[in-house]
Design a protein that fits this description.
It is built from 26 helices and twelve strands. By secondary structure, the chain is α/β, with parallel strands linked by helices. It has five domains: 170 residues, Rossmann fold (3-Layer(aba) Sandwich), CATH 3.40.50; 62 residues, Helicase, Ruva Protein, domain 3, CATH 1.10.8; 113 residues, Zinc Finger, Delta Prime, domain 3; 81 residues, no CATH class; 77 residues, GMP Synthetase, Chain A, domain 3 (2-Layer Sandwich), CATH 3.30.300.180. Helix 5 packs parallel to helix 6. The longest helix has 18 residues. About 18% of the residues have low confidence. Bound molecules: zinc ion.
Length: 596
């Protein structure tokens, strides 16, 4: 009876051509062999299972082969090749530095280096995980590495190139092995399956390849395991069951819940997943990865970033069409938050359920990551419908525009964009302002179609828009007020915004004039001042409305270049600015103990 060999050994490549996923690198090695231009030492770098040791063995076999092909491949038939394949060749010495990392181990190796080959031309020394050598061992090795006998070739292999000291790096020819792509793995697995007479579904091989995470050896081991337990018929179901992989179907169903705002259904699906024995953090991370894949699948130029078979890519691309980039950004962010908070949460199930509930709220104002556009409205949550199905995300932009004037909708504090300093108050009475805010309700897109993420900044971000919004929605206040009260409110605004230097100076130089009923005028000297006041108008008005209990207070700004220029900075403020601009001044003031 033929002895059973695991696939990882049975299908270990025996020629450069059969090495999976390292075409360019093996071509270079083949050329070196074919032209007999060999270096003394090579360094093979790359993560585990990508073929470093396999390539080193093929290389050793090829340079000793007495009958190698013109392309530099070993014949696998000559006496030397057969000895190599049987593992009996004396011309190859392997040292695993992970377990033999001391000076003595290296001394033994160095002793062996002195022995010339009995058959063939070269002796090849493979030192695996060379970064594990102790400092003393490294030093003992350096001399030999620098001037080895002519019949010796060193092949050092490492998974952690950055740990290799420069003196070693500079003595080696360096080859960087790539991670093996999912596609290459699937092809190889399919080949092995055919050779072994195992039936398979490509989707199942995709699951195995993903699980192997770039390591061909792992992929073949997993393949053996699944093939054995599924009776030589690898189906998608048998693969995910065996490998404890969460079926993408769950994520797809959850996505439908998120898009339709079905919180309760999403919780039920989460329960199913828990019942199957999946860890909640594993689930959240899987969900995050799913959103990430949807994100890159949404554009044909980034589709290649999805590590999956073509069929899976296409299905993701189809689903991505349903999601706006804003939704995906926020979804990834929420999953990330949940992952970060997971360890410290005392009720992990609740944390995940809360995250799912948030994901079902496409218009959530949970603001810090909400890039979902500006001027959007939050759906009212009524007692009759505790779980309000939200509008599909794709329709948000248009529905937000149509709802922005509705009294039933509570306007959400708009996000301020860096390039649009004006507070985008949806409830502004100023015709110019509402025009501007209406324009801003459209998602801002750059040329690549991905919306810019807005950043909160500017004075309006410090204030709560909901106060005046609620006031507008409830009942407008219209108290009468005196000129002194208006001046006091104006001064209060100035004193509570010490950092908004230009604005404060402008306001200090231009107190309200021509006060008639609820309207007054502000005179400024130039266009710049007019713009800064306009830009902050909504915020100023909001404060004035509250201070004066009158929601109809309004002002207009006009330029009067002939206005009496007034001193706009207090001396202390002037000094502060000067100190900020020349730090040496602060030093001088301290040194001389000066006082204003
Ligand atoms: Zn041969």
């Amino acid at each position: 009876m033929e002895k059973y060999l695991v696939s990882a050994r049975k299908y270990r490549p025996s020629t450069f051509a059969t090495v999976v996923g390292q075409k360019a690198l093996t071509a270079t090695l083949r050329n070196a062999v074919a032209t007999d231009r060999l270096a003394n030492s090579y360094l093979f770098c790359g993560s585990r299972g990508v073929g470093k040791t396999s390539c080193a063995r093929i290389f050793a076999k090829a340079i000793n082969c007495s009958n190698r092909t013109p392309e530099g491949e070993p014949c696998n038939e000559c006496e030397s090749c057969r000895a190599f394949n049987a593992g009996t060749s004396m011309n190859i010495v392997e040292l695993d530095a992970a377990s033999n990392n001391g000076v003595d181990d290296i001394r033994k190796l160095v002793e062996q280096v002195q022995v010339p080959p009995s058959m063939g031309r070269y002796r090849v020394f493979i030192v695996d995980e060379v970064h594990m050598l102790s400092a003393a061992a490294f030093n003992a090795f350096l001399k030999t590495l620098e001037e080895p006998p002519s019949y010796v070739v060193f092949i050092l292999a490492t998974t952690e190139k950055h740990k290799i000291i420069p003196t070693i790096l500079s003595r080696c020819q360096i080859y960087d092995f790539h991670r093996i792509t999912i596609r290459d793995m699937i092809d190889q697995l399919a080949y092995v399956a055919k050779q072994e007479g195992v039936a398979y579904e490509t989707e199942a091989l995709n699951v195995i390849a993903r699980k192997a995470d770039g390591a061909m050896r792992d992929a073949l081991s997993i393949f053996d395991q699944v093939a054995a337990s599924s009776g030589m018929n690898i189906t998608y179901e048998s693969a995910i069951e065996n490998l404890n992989v969460l079926d993408n179907g769950y994520y797809n169903r959850l996505l439908d819940c998120f898009l339709s705002g079905d919180v309760l259904q999403s919780w039920l699906i989460y329960k199913e997943i828990r019942d199957k024995g999946f860890d909640s953090q594993f689930f959240i991370n899987g969900l995050a990865a799913y959103f990430r894949d949807l994100m890159v699948a949404s554009d044909s130029s980034t589709l290649q970033l999805v590590e999956a078979s073509d069929a899976v890519r296409q299905s993701l691309a189809q689903r991505a069409l349903k999601c706006t980039p804003q939704f995906l950004y926020r979804a990834m962010s929420l999953c990330n938050d949940a992952d970060l908070n997971y360890r410290v949460s005392s009720n992990k199930q609740f944390l995940v359920e809360l995250t799912l509930a948030k994901l079902c709220q496409p218009l959530s104002p949970s603001a810090e990551n909400d890039s979902a556009g500006e001027g959007q409205s939050l759906q009212p949550i009524t007692a009759a419908a505790p779980v309000q199905p939200a509008a599909p995300v794709a329709n948000q932009a248009s529905s937000a525009v149509s709802r922005s004037g509705s009294a039933s909708a509570v306007p959400v504090q708009p996000l301020q964009s860096t390039s649009v300093p004006a507070p985008a108050a949806v409830h502004s009475v100023d015709a110019g302002m509402s025009g501007a805010s209406a324009r801003r309700t459209e998602p801002q897109r750059n040329i690549s179609g991905i919306p810019r993420i807005s950043i909160r900044c500017g004075p309006a971000a410090e204030t709560s828009g909901t106060t005046s919004a609620a006031a507008t929605a409830a009942q407008s206040r219209s108290e009468r007020f005196s000129h002194e009260a208006l001046n006091t409110a104006w001064t209060t605004y100035i004193s509570t915004h010490p950092k908004a230097q230009i604005l404060v100076n402008t306001m200090r130089a231009s107190y309200p004039i021509e006060i008639r009923e609820n309207n007054f005028t502000v005179e400024v000297q130039n266009q710049k001042q007019l713009e800064i006041l306009d830009a902050n108008k909504a915020d100023i008005l909001e404060k004035l409305h509250n201070a004066l209990s009158n929601d109809f207070v309004n002002f207009n700004v006009r330029i009067n270049a002939n206005r009496d220029p007034r001193h706009t900075l207090r001396e202390s403020e002037l000094l502060e600015i000067m100190k900020r601009e020349s730090p040496a001044l602060t030093h001088l003031i301290q040194e001389l103990n000066l006082r204003l």
